[in-house]
Amino acid sequence: MADGVILPMANALLSCLAEQLALNPDPPAEVCLRAGDQVLHDVDAATGMDKVCCPGLAYVRIGDMFPSSDFPEPDQQPAKGNGCFPVGWAVELVMGVVRCIPGMGDPAGPTCADWTLVATHDANDLDAMRKALCCWGPTLPKTRLWLAQVSTVTMAADCIERQFPLVVSVPRCC
Predict the structure, then answer these.
(1) N or C: which end of the chain has fewer CB within 10 A?
(2) Which run of H or E residues covers position 163?
(3) Domains of the chain, start order
(4) Beta-carbon neighbour count of residue 58 at 10 Å?
């Protein structure tokens, strides 16, 4: 039987993110679901070409899942022979956008104009993520709680990645 809870929530969030990013002056080239604990900023080893960072990638990643009888807190007590424990679950969904930093491979490094472009992309992407939450939240059942976490931005090689994690309540199995 296919997942009827987590994947539909992730796809709905991805759809809202794609819709909002499409309104940006320079939207990312790819929008897709990703798996794993991090999003690789792919470079084609055969050609040395950047296939993710510079064209831009927006994604939703399904992260950790944990028992949460008192959402959003993880359970600290073990199940006590109760076949229906826990009362609920929580799953992490992470929205993100990967962009390149122009000029990082040049000996002189990025110019002020390059950094301004990166900051503009980041601000526009972050605004689209915020609006994606406004689109996505009302699509959830009224009993489904969610909590936006702290948005982070990291740099790796010539890429900048903005992540916006969420924790969403998931019903128990029984």
Answers:
(1) N
(2) strand 159-171
(3) 6-36+49-75+85-171 (3.30.70)
(4) 28
